[in-house]
UniProtKB/TrEMBL annotation:
Source superkingdom: Eukaryota
The UniProt record lists the keyword Lyase: no
TM ranges: 23-45, 51-75, 87-106, 126-145
Record-linked InterPro entries: MAL, Marvel, MARVEL-CKLF_proteins
Species in which this protein is naturally found: Umbra pygmaea
Record flagged with keyword Phosphoprotein: no
Subcellular location: Membrane
Name of the protein in question: MARVEL domain-containing protein
Membrane topology annotation: Multi-pass membrane protein
Domain MARVEL: 16-148
Protein backbone atom coordinates (compact mmCIF):
# COMPACT_ATOMS: atom_id res chain seq x y z
CA UNK A 1 0.00 0.00 0.00
CA UNK A 2 1.34 3.43 -0.87
CA UNK A 3 2.20 5.71 1.98
CA UNK A 4 2.34 9.45 2.27
CA UNK A 5 4.01 9.39 5.68
CA UNK A 6 7.43 9.95 4.11
CA UNK A 7 6.49 12.98 2.03
CA UNK A 8 9.60 14.89 3.13
CA UNK A 9 12.00 12.46 1.53
CA UNK A 10 12.61 11.15 -1.96
CA UNK A 11 12.55 7.36 -2.27
CA UNK A 12 15.39 5.31 -3.71
CA UNK A 13 15.38 1.92 -5.39
CA UNK A 14 12.21 -0.09 -5.22
CA UNK A 15 10.86 2.46 -2.73
CA UNK A 16 9.44 4.29 -5.74
CA UNK A 17 6.93 1.46 -6.03
CA UNK A 18 5.56 2.09 -2.54
CA UNK A 19 5.20 5.85 -2.16
CA UNK A 20 2.83 8.42 -3.56
CA UNK A 21 3.45 10.14 -6.02
CA UNK A 22 6.24 7.87 -7.28
CA UNK A 23 3.93 4.92 -7.76
CA UNK A 24 2.40 6.88 -10.67
CA UNK A 25 5.55 6.57 -12.83
CA UNK A 26 4.51 3.21 -14.27
CA UNK A 27 0.95 4.25 -15.27
CA UNK A 28 2.37 7.47 -16.77
CA UNK A 29 4.75 5.41 -18.88
CA UNK A 30 2.01 3.00 -19.94
CA UNK A 31 -0.58 5.62 -20.92
CA UNK A 32 2.02 7.89 -22.53
CA UNK A 33 3.37 4.97 -24.53
CA UNK A 34 -0.12 4.03 -25.65
CA UNK A 35 -0.75 7.60 -26.87
CA UNK A 36 2.53 7.47 -28.77
CA UNK A 37 1.71 4.12 -30.39
CA UNK A 38 -1.91 4.95 -31.26
CA UNK A 39 -1.11 8.32 -32.81
CA UNK A 40 1.75 6.75 -34.76
CA UNK A 41 -0.69 4.14 -36.15
CA UNK A 42 -3.24 6.62 -37.45
CA UNK A 43 -3.52 8.08 -40.90
CA UNK A 44 -2.19 11.62 -40.53
CA UNK A 45 -3.85 14.24 -42.72
CA UNK A 46 -3.46 17.39 -40.60
CA UNK A 47 0.17 16.93 -39.58
CA UNK A 48 0.48 19.97 -37.34
CA UNK A 49 -1.69 19.03 -34.33
CA UNK A 50 -0.73 15.37 -34.48
CA UNK A 51 2.93 16.32 -34.73
CA UNK A 52 2.59 18.19 -31.44
CA UNK A 53 0.86 15.19 -29.88
CA UNK A 54 3.71 12.94 -31.04
CA UNK A 55 6.31 15.34 -29.67
CA UNK A 56 4.58 15.53 -26.29
CA UNK A 57 4.09 11.79 -25.98
CA UNK A 58 7.66 10.90 -27.01
CA UNK A 59 9.19 13.69 -24.90
CA UNK A 60 7.19 12.85 -21.77
CA UNK A 61 7.73 9.11 -22.19
CA UNK A 62 11.49 9.57 -22.54
CA UNK A 63 11.89 12.05 -19.69
CA UNK A 64 9.62 10.05 -17.37
CA UNK A 65 11.66 6.92 -18.08
CA UNK A 66 14.90 8.78 -17.35
CA UNK A 67 13.33 10.35 -14.25
CA UNK A 68 12.25 6.91 -13.02
CA UNK A 69 15.78 5.59 -13.52
CA UNK A 70 17.21 8.55 -11.58
CA UNK A 71 15.00 7.72 -8.61
CA UNK A 72 15.43 3.98 -9.01
CA UNK A 73 19.25 4.14 -8.95
CA UNK A 74 19.40 6.82 -6.22
CA UNK A 75 21.18 9.48 -8.26
CA UNK A 76 19.13 12.26 -6.62
CA UNK A 77 20.86 12.02 -3.19
CA UNK A 78 17.63 13.15 -1.49
CA UNK A 79 18.13 16.89 -1.96
CA UNK A 80 15.42 19.53 -2.09
CA UNK A 81 16.53 20.56 -5.60
CA UNK A 82 15.36 17.21 -6.93
CA UNK A 83 12.00 17.61 -5.22
CA UNK A 84 11.63 21.00 -6.91
CA UNK A 85 12.65 19.58 -10.28
CA UNK A 86 10.19 16.70 -9.82
CA UNK A 87 7.35 19.15 -9.20
CA UNK A 88 8.32 21.40 -12.12
CA UNK A 89 8.72 18.53 -14.59
CA UNK A 90 5.35 17.02 -13.77
CA UNK A 91 3.67 20.42 -13.95
CA UNK A 92 5.14 20.99 -17.43
CA UNK A 93 4.22 17.44 -18.50
CA UNK A 94 0.61 17.89 -17.34
CA UNK A 95 0.38 21.19 -19.22
CA UNK A 96 1.95 19.65 -22.36
CA UNK A 97 -0.41 16.67 -22.31
CA UNK A 98 -3.43 18.93 -21.85
CA UNK A 99 -2.25 21.11 -24.75
CA UNK A 100 -1.91 17.96 -26.87
CA UNK A 101 -5.11 16.18 -25.81
CA UNK A 102 -7.43 19.06 -26.72
CA UNK A 103 -6.32 19.38 -30.39
CA UNK A 104 -6.23 15.58 -30.67
CA UNK A 105 -9.86 15.42 -29.52
CA UNK A 106 -10.80 18.18 -31.98
CA UNK A 107 -9.12 16.40 -34.89
CA UNK A 108 -10.83 13.16 -33.88
CA UNK A 109 -14.23 14.88 -33.95
CA UNK A 110 -13.44 16.27 -37.39
CA UNK A 111 -12.56 12.78 -38.68
CA UNK A 112 -15.69 10.94 -37.57
CA UNK A 113 -16.62 10.23 -41.22
CA UNK A 114 -13.26 8.53 -41.91
CA UNK A 115 -12.55 4.83 -41.78
CA UNK A 116 -13.98 3.26 -38.62
CA UNK A 117 -10.68 1.55 -37.78
CA UNK A 118 -8.69 4.81 -37.74
CA UNK A 119 -11.51 6.61 -35.95
CA UNK A 120 -11.41 4.04 -33.15
CA UNK A 121 -7.63 4.40 -32.91
CA UNK A 122 -8.05 8.16 -32.62
CA UNK A 123 -10.70 7.82 -29.92
CA UNK A 124 -8.42 5.48 -27.97
CA UNK A 125 -5.55 7.95 -28.30
CA UNK A 126 -7.75 10.77 -26.99
CA UNK A 127 -8.86 8.73 -23.98
CA UNK A 128 -5.29 7.72 -23.13
CA UNK A 129 -4.05 11.29 -23.63
CA UNK A 130 -6.59 12.57 -21.12
CA UNK A 131 -5.69 9.73 -18.74
CA UNK A 132 -2.01 10.66 -19.02
CA UNK A 133 -2.94 14.30 -18.38
CA UNK A 134 -4.84 13.29 -15.25
CA UNK A 135 -1.98 11.13 -13.99
CA UNK A 136 0.59 13.87 -14.52
CA UNK A 137 -1.72 16.38 -12.81
CA UNK A 138 -2.19 14.13 -9.77
CA UNK A 139 1.56 13.53 -9.69
CA UNK A 140 2.09 17.31 -9.79
CA UNK A 141 -0.16 17.85 -6.76
CA UNK A 142 1.56 15.18 -4.68
CA UNK A 143 5.00 16.39 -5.80
CA UNK A 144 4.07 19.91 -4.71
CA UNK A 145 3.07 18.61 -1.26
CA UNK A 146 6.35 16.71 -1.00
CA UNK A 147 8.33 19.74 -2.20
CA UNK A 148 6.66 22.01 0.38
CA UNK A 149 7.29 19.51 3.20
CA UNK A 150 11.00 19.18 2.32
Amino acid sequence: MASTATMGHLPTGLGICTTIPDILYLPELIFGGLVWILVACTYVIPTNPLGWVMFVSVFCFTVTFIWTCIFLFGVHRNSSGWATADFLYHFVAAFFYLSAAVPLALETLNKKNDTLFYYRLDISAVVFAYMATLLYFIHTIFSAWRWKSF
